[in-house]
Design brief:
about 600 residues; alpha+beta; 5 domains; 8-stranded mixed sheet
């Protein structure tokens, strides 16, 4: 496919949070930004008049846009930070320095300390975050300090040094902020229990802490200390909005390549995420045209080799959705849950959005191309002699044998043509006989089309298995249309397709667009038929209840139903209530009918 123009790219951007990257005509990244809604944010650059001269110059230089879709605005903020530090775009001023967002570290040591840091050292401890909000970070640290007395000193608290009495308690101990582990006044087991609880808080499990805060806030409010209560309320709000873990920056996942694939009948779309030191630093989606019905496995292996060469990747490990053969020098991981699975899901999300955008771009550039592709696909999948530009689908509707009706829905070029839909009331069949009803409806439909010299469909779909299909074929034989119009039956159980004189059904790929269109036709025929059946049943119910009363006409029935809302309420109404609505004479007829 050709590279879409900037104008078309702007029309097909998703309404999702993410990061956008602007490229100039030489292919260099000139700006990276984050957005809560990518479509609105990026379009604002091209629809507003900018006062800032630098922004006006930036907009003039934009030749291409790339974007990465993420789950939350916080993730977008973190990813923006990663990409700016990696690529140092010319028109970004903020975030270019070596400062990163802060983390909370639980130090890897005896009697661990808990503190904030902007630098991560491998093996230095367990890191939680990063935090895009300093307020959230300080609220959590204040919460931890208030709940659990921890040491703040940097002493090396080995057992031998404590036993030797090398250290003395400091002011923090006397203030009650520390329990004096340095002098052996607190056991390691008790201290580690506190650390275990702190880890749960940092992971977002602070139900007990929130309960304590709310209790404290209510107490302040009762004591008329509203300023203190407001401070506690603000802390509660911060904690309730706290996000414990980010997929975008995760120190547990370092220096890996992530690949996922989304495919259809014609193309495969492979997304690539590159992680370095726990942070996503690159995203790219490759579109591959299928030539010989390649499997997803074959396409993914081909794409991984090409992408790794293009971006000079030296990662020794890749995450993929299924087993692939890349040679013995690369470790292949297939994540099933946890952080690794989240990052793979993010990659797949970007592949899906890329595919959707390409379809939208095709429809804008060449509206007929999408329909032509589907028609050609349906002709091949269903083994037809011509493209099914005009399809008709039949469905019977009768519930407990009452009011049998049928529906015919029409699709033209793969889309519903509602003006051509038709309802049928079954006239020649007594009782619930679906086979005979189908025979009658098909005969009536195509006899009329032939009599009026209307165009016939290229494909007829019968909602039902072999029995329904045989009934429809009888009508086509009577009209001399057997062999002139293709006809298939679709059975609901396994979505198998039956052809005339072929006992073995055809099973289409569950992902195929051909099956999706056939299912859409079947569902639409069912909906349209049920709607007509309900209307007819409701009308007949009204007729039997009220219009059979001698001397009561249709207008009186409407007046009664408008007022009483149902026939049952009319039957239970008192005489004076009826008189107030329809007068003395007619009220007596209705009342006597129900009460004699």
């Amino acid at each position: 496919m050709d590279v879409p123009t900037l104008e078309i790219q702007l029309k097909t951007l998703p309404n999702q949070p993410g990061v956008y990257q602007y490229f100039d005509k030489e292919g260099a990244i000139i700006y990276v930004g984050k957005a809560k809604n990518l479509k609105k944010r990026v379009n604002s650059y091209f629809t507003k008049t900018h006062d800032n001269g630098k922004t006006r110059v930036l907009v003039k230089k934009i030749a291409r846009i790339k974007h990465i879709v993420v789950e939350t605005e916080t993730d977008a903020l973190l990813l923006e930070n990663n990409l700016i530090k990696k690529h140092q775009p010319r028109y970004n001023v903020m975030l270019k320095d070596d400062k990163s967002y802060p983390w909370i570290c639980v130090k890897n040591e005896r009697f661990p300390r808990v503190f904030s840091t902007r630098r991560i050292f491998k093996g230095g401890g367990e890191y939680f975050g990063p935090y895009t909000s300093g307020k959230t970070l300080h609220t959590l640290l204040d919460l931890i300090k208030g709940l659990y007395p921890l040491r703040t000193c940097n002493y090396d608290l080995t057992k031998s040094k404590i036993d030797a009495g090398k250290y003395k308690v400091c002011l923090e101990y006397h203030l009650g902020n520390c329990k004096g582990a340095c002098e052996g006044k607190e056991t390691e087991a008790a201290y580690n229990e506190n650390i275990k609880a702190i880890r749960q808080i940092l992971k977002g499990n602070f139900k007990d802490s929130l309960h304590q805060f709310k209790k404290q806030m209510n107490q302040y409010a009762q004591d008329m200390m509203f300023e203190e209560a407001q401070k506690i309320k603000e802390k509660i709000e911060v904690l309730e909005n706290y996000q414990a873990r980010s997929t975008i920056v995760n120190p547990k996942i370092s220096n890996v390549d992530v690949f996922s694939i989304m495919s259809d009948e014609t193309y495969g779309y492979v997304n690539f995420l590159q992680l370095s030191y726990g942070a996503i630093i690159r995203s790219h989606t490759l579109e591959i045209k299928k030539k010989l019905d390649e499997t997803d496995k074959e396409l993914l292996e081909l794409a991984i080799t090409e992408i790794r060469q293009r971006f000079h990747s030296k990662s020794k490990e890749v995450y993929v959705p299924f087993k692939v053969d890349l040679g013995g020098h690369i470790k292949v991981t297939i994540p099933k849950l946890g952080d690794k699975k989240h990052i793979l899901d993010l990659s797949l999300r970007n592949a899906k959005y890329y595919r959707m955008e390409r379809f939208k771009q095709d429809k804008i550039v060449d509206p007929d191309r999408h329909a032509n592709r589907i028609m050609a696909q349906m002709k091949a999948d269903l083994r037809l002699n011509e493209e099914p530009r005009h399809i008709e689908c039949f469905d019977n509707s009768n519930i407990q044998g009452t009011n049998p009706v049928a529906a015919c829905v029409v699709f033209k070029n793969g889309k519903p043509s509602k003006k051509d839909y038709r309802h049928f009331n079954i006239k020649t069949v007594e009782g619930p006989d679906d086979f005979a009803s189908m025979e009658e409806v098909v005969l009536r439909r195509y006899k009329r089309l032939l009599d009026e010299d209307q165009p016939l469909p290229q494909l007829i779909i019968i909602d039902g298995g072999k029995g329904q299909l045989s009934s429809a074929l009888k009508s086509l034989d009577l009209l001399g249309l057997r062999g002139k119009v293709a006809i298939v039956g679709i059975a609901k159980r396994l979505e198998e397709l039956y052809y005339p004189n072929d006992p073995i059904p055809l099973y289409l790929d569950k992902k195929s667009e051909t099956l999706k269109i056939i299912q859409q036709l079947r569902n639409e025929a069912h909906r349209f038929g049920i709607e007509h059946h309900r209307n007819k049943r409701s009308k007949s119910a009204l007729n039997t209840e009220l219009e059979t009363i001698p001397g009561i006409g249709e207008r009186t029935v409407v007046e009664l139903l408008k007022h009483f809302k149902s026939a049952k309420r009319v039957a239970n109404a008192k005489l004076d209530e009826l008189e107030a609505v329809i007068g003395n004479s007619r009220a007596e007829k209705v009342y006597n009918y129900y009460h004699e």
